[in-house]
Amino acid sequence: MGLETQAVSQLLESVEWFLDHLKVERVASTHTVSAYEGDLRGACKLFDSWGVRSWQDLEMTHLLRYEATLGPPLAQTTAQRRLSGLRTFLKFLKRNGVELKTDLPSTGGFKKKKLLPKALTLEQMEALLASPDLSRASGIRDRTLMELIYGAGLRVSEAVELEFSGLSMEEETLIVTGKRGKTRKVPLPEGTLGWLRKYLQSARPLLVAGATAKVIVSDHGKTLLRQTAYDILEKHRIRAGLADGVSPHTLRHSYAVHLLKGGADLRVVQELLGHESIATTQIYTQLDLQEVRRRYEQAHPRK
User: Fold this and answer.
1) What is the 3-state secondary structure (H, E, C) of the chain?
2) pLDDT of residue 101
3) What is the pTM of this model?
């Protein structure tokens, strides 16, 4: 607990219990656990400064006071995450027998607008994929990484964590481990398969010094970090002359949009993306309407 006061340390004991639950029972990602920890640690310090010595001491006035600290200039998305995280934590305590004096905080006031995902056109996608220097092993690796994210609709974490045990060149499929440890089988298009073969035969052996189970490796033959994948994509975005805002998620979004525009069934796309709810996938069907509306408003700017 470091140099925290004794009271804060007592509050944080329950937080540590909750974080262990996230790691072990919910199989949450390191990123998710870290976000909860940072937000809840900050909340503990505030509650301690207001005289809260245990979670049983927490009252609605404390929650309202905490919510008041989440206004501008704090981003609405950050405010929503912090309040939602506190609500999830307090719900965990109640479910595990901790008697609280207060009701759970409402997060409705901080709900962000659901933004439509950005998708690249086929021409932009082709320009991005063509940007790596294929005379270098790292360039072939970069192309293969982007091919996996776009060609198989992978999350960036799924792409960098992909192991040979999940790759079947014979069946032309991937077994992908997604959120909450759930697995799904994803077919590989011919183009992506071709780049995988080229990478495995001519590029990966030049990058890897020792044995590793990971398919995609760094320039030093180690596991490729998520942030490095973002940096790789940013480099090629600039080379391809594309506007800001292109991320690995953009390639995944583009995969979904291009499938739907090609006539793929929404349920099939849901399975391929590994979405738990069809509602998450349905947002992609709004993209064409959004584009029509944008063009209409450009031509007819009256409100």
Assistant:
1) CCCCCHHHHHHHHHHHHHHHHHHHCCCCCHHHHHHHHHHHHHHHHHHHHCCCCCHHHCCHHHHHHHHHCCCCCCCHHHHHHHHHHHHHHHHHHHHCCCCCCCCCCCCHHHCCCCCCCCCCCHHHHHHHHCCCCCCCHHHHHHHHHHHHHHHHCCCHHHHHHCEHHHEECCCCEEEEECHHHCEEEEECCHHHHHHHHHHHHHHHHHHCCCCCCECCECCCCCECCHHHHHHHHHHHHHHHCCCCCCCHHHHHHHHHHHHHHCCCCHHHHHHHHCCCCHHHHHHHHHHHHHHHHHHHHHHCCCC
2) 81
3) 0.60
